[in-house]
Write a structure and sequence with these properties.
Layout (H helix, E strand, L loop, with lengths): L3 E8 L3 H14 L4 E5 L4 H7 L5 H7 L4 E6 L5 H7 L14 H8 L4 E7 L13 E7 L9 E2 L4 H10 L16 E2 L5 H17 L4 E6 L5 H15 L6 E6 H10 L6 E4 L1 H14 L7 E5 L4 E5 L16 H13 L3 H17 L13 H11 L2
Parallel strand pairs: 1-2, 1-3, 3-12, 5-10, 8-9, 8-10
Antiparallel strand pairs: 4-5, 4-11, 6-7, 11-12
Helix pairs in contact: 1-11, 1-13, 7-8, 9-10, 11-12, 12-13
1,4-dihydronicotinamide adenine dinucleotide binds next to loops.
InterPro entries: IsoCit/isopropylmalate_DH_CS (IPR019818), IsoPropMal-DH-like_dom (IPR024084)
GO molecular function, one term: NAD binding
GO biological process, one term: isocitrate metabolic process
Length: 373
């Protein structure tokens, strides 16, 4: 029997190509796993009215970790039009599988390492090495939204909140409300995850990202809780910054930062900013991590225009595989993958189109697999 059970969720578009590449490299370093394929993505929406069928949820309850490729999603009208005729007009609504996965399995950490490997032509600066901890379950992404706004809610807000006055007399469909909900528990566990990571990896500093001077209630809570957690880690420096200012400073001097921790929306934004500094979508990898399950994925989507061309960069997926190994306690094999990626990038002989080269997805994966030996 294999040592680990891994759910293998390739999804749509280039998902199967990049996940296949990751698999090749995981095999090359001798990762002892049984991969169980799971259905997820657009095809299952069209055929069954559910892009994340119950059988896939059941599968995820039985595995040690999951590798996830990419999925396609489309606006509501197209989603309805592409449903199989028997399912149309039944009020089915498309919901993002990855968002549902985060909620169902309480994958509260979104971990995004952003490291500039020397020699990669897409590095914004050499030497960048940032790690983003994004809270993954609450904040503005909690899904508590109103459009149109129910009269009852408007009346309550008018009674409880003075600043609501300018909106008081608007008709229900003239505005919309999305609730930003942040809990003490949610803030505490993401902050603790960031500091534990910093401690385990000899990182020097954790920076909390917020807008607490304006968004006082929720971001104020986030900052207060993060600061309290920081006190438990006296050997690690702590500072904090407003999201807007941080975006400027990050670009100006990325070396002033180390580990960044943020509520969901700000974390989403800064992780894309950080990913672009180290090569963009072909390099961006992420882990959605809870206490029971970790789901590891490239951050890019299904890139329909490149599907089947075997030309996209698999490094994001290969590094997602490396993150999975770290999380499973297979650190030595993870380090071998990372060294192999670094070596291939430093040599510069194999480059996919995004790096200005013509190598295929498979050629990149094979070069990394060979370098890992
Ligand atoms: P995308 O990330 O799929 O592609 C945007 C562009 O980035 C591509 O056209 C390509 O130029 C480049 N790119 C993406 N991956 C690359 C790689 N590995 N190597 C080199 N270049 C790469 O985003 P887009 O086009 O906005 O969305 C396409 C579909 O993917 C949509 O249906 C969208 O909803 C979905 N999507 C899914 C995500 C996920 O599965 N986590 C994340 C983002 C989008
Ligand atoms: Mg994003």
């Amino acid at each position: 029997m294999a040592k680990f059970r891994i759910a293998y969720l390739p999804g749509d578009g280039i998902g199967p190509e990049v996940l296949g590449a990751a698999r090749l490299v995981l095999d090359a370093v001798g990762f002892d796993a049984e991969y169980i394929p799971g259905d997820v993505g657009w095809r299952f929406w069209c055929e069954e009215g559910d892009p994340f069928p119950q059988r896939t949820i059941n599968l995820l309850h039985t595995v040690d970790a999951a590798l996830f490729g990419a999925i396609t999603s489309k606006p509501a009208a197209e989603a309805e039009a592409e449903l199989s005729p028997a399912l149309r007009g039944k009020g089915l609504t498309y919901r993002s599988p990855i968002v549902r996965m985060r909620q169902l399995f309480d994958l509260y950490v979104c971990l995004r390492p952003c490291k500039a490997y020397p020699g990669s032509p897409l590095n914004y600066r050499e030497g960048i090495d940032l790690v983003v901890f994004r809270e993954n379950t609450e904040d503005l992404y909690a899904g508590v939204e109103f459009r149109p706004v129910p009269t009852e809610l408007a009346q309550t807000l008018n009674r409880l909140a003075k600043p609501f006055a300018p909106f008081r007399d608007l008709p229900p469909d003239a505005y919309a409300i999305s609730c930003k909900i942040n809990t003490r528990r949610g803030s505490e566990r993401i902050a603790r995850a960031a500091f534990e990571f910093a401690r385990a990896h000899g990182r020097k500093k954790v920076t909390a990202v917020h807008k607490a001077n304006v968004v006082r209630a929720t971001d104020g809570l986030f900052l207060e809780v993060t600061r309290a957690v920081a006190a438990d880690y006296p050997e690690i420096a702590f500072d904090h910054a407003n999201i807007d200012a941080l975006c400027m400073w990050l670009l100006k001097n990325p070396f002033n930062y180390d580990v960044l921790v943020a509520p969901n929306l700000y974390g989403d934004i800064i992780s894309d900013l950080c990913a672009q500094m180290v090569g963009g979508l072909g390099f961006g990898c992420s882990g959605n991590i809870g206490d029971e399950l970790g789901v590891f994925e490239p951050t890019h989507g299904s890139a329909p225009k490149y599907t089947g061309q075997h030309k996209v960069n698999p490094i994001a997926s290969i590094l997602a595989g490396k993150m999975m190994l770290d999380w499973l306690g297979e650190g030595e094999r993870a380090a071998r993958i990372e060294r192999a990626v670094a070596r291939v990038l430093a040599e510069g002989k194999v480059r996919t189109y995004d790096m200005g080269g013509t190598s295929s997805t498979d050629a990149m994966a094979e070069a990394i697999a060979a370098a890992s030996q």
